[in-house]
Write a structure and sequence with these properties.
CATH class of the largest domain: Alpha Beta
Number of domains: 2
Strand order of the largest sheet: 3-2-1-4-5-6
Shape: elongated
Radius of gyration: 21 Å
Oligomer: single chain
Distance between the termini: 50 Å
CATH topology of the largest domain: Endonuclease, Chain A
Structural class: alpha/beta
CATH architecture of the largest domain: 2-Layer Sandwich
Helix content: 40-55%
């Protein structure tokens, strides 16, 4: 069974877009390479769009509309898909994560997935979050590789609530390894890690964890939630998340205090 056999246009607008691109390409007698040449992208991009492993961007949707002039423009379909919540949020999240040049993260309850150790991820996912824990762990580690394995890693700023350091996830050994990993992360030139201490009291970040990613000079946001999150692409809504991040950032401890806070937290798991 191919990846395309799993696509369901009745469930997902993105799946409909993928199959429609494939249908019109074949109807036009174009190879994947020929279509890629026509719209100015790589052959692999066409293949991944047709498999729905990535989402068609507005930029290339406009190019497809120019070539094919479909009854329902691809640009309109993409905007509909971006505004909807059809359960296919994870594809969009991982695609944007891997291509973002800037990440801004606020985490209220857990270490951010991109900074989790394998054992911490396994302990968190084993609480009943997923059906296949090992598969989910591999997926999480692959997400990390896609971000940190780039020739030019993105600039990342992350603010953690003090809660994530005092809430044990797994054994004390798991927590020690995780906090030591965070200490190593603070040494990376592209990462700015800060902690929002207990004395911050009430703040806008209490509403939940989220992140803002910059991709191709455009910001998108992701709001975390039980079962599944929500990818936010509307510029007005994304701006609200960016403002919330700034408000949380204004309250967090300075960069210089981070290591001392992490080292103090590490002592509690000895």
């Amino acid at each position: 069974m191919s990846v395309r056999d799993d696509l369901n246009p009745d469930r997902s607008i993105w799946h409909f877009i993928a199959l429609e691109v494939l249908r019109l390409r074949k109807l036009s007698g174009l190879t994947g390479q020929a279509l890629a040449n026509s719209i100015g992208c790589h052959r692999s991009y066409v293949s991944r769009v047709e498999n729905a492993s990535i989402h068609l961007s507005i930029k290339y949707a406009v190019e497809l509309d120019r070539i094919w002039r479909p009854v329902i423009p691809f640009a309109r379909l993409v905007r509909w898909a971006e505004a909807s919540d059809d359960g296919d949020w994870f594809t969009g999240l991982t695609w944007h994560e891997a291509r973002a040049t800037r990440h801004r993260m606020w985490e209220a309850l857990l270490i951010p997935g991109l900074f989790q150790t394998e054992d911490y991820a396994r302990a968190a996912l084993s609480t009943g979050m997923v059906d296949d824990v090992e598969k989910a762990v591999k997926t999480r580690l692959a997400r990390q590789d896609a971000v940190f394995g780039q020739p030019t890693p993105p600039h990342m700023t992350a603010i953690l609530s003090w809660v994530v350091l005092v809430q044990p996830v797994g054994s004390d050994d798991v927590m020690r390894e995780q906090i030591n990993h965070l200490l190593a992360v603070t040494e990376l030139p592209n990462v700015n890690l800060r902690v929002l201490e207990r004395n911050a009291r009430s703040h806008v970040g209490l509403d939940g964890s989220f992140q803002v990613m910059t991709v191709d000079d455009r910001d998108v946001a992701f709001a975390d939630a039980p079962v599944r999150g929500r990818l936010v692409t509307d510029p007005g809504d994304v701006q609200k998340y960016a403002v919330m991040y700034d408000r949380v950032s204004d309250t967090a401890e300075g960069i210089g205090s981070t290591r001392a806070i992490l080292e103090k937290a590490l002592e509690t798991y000895r």
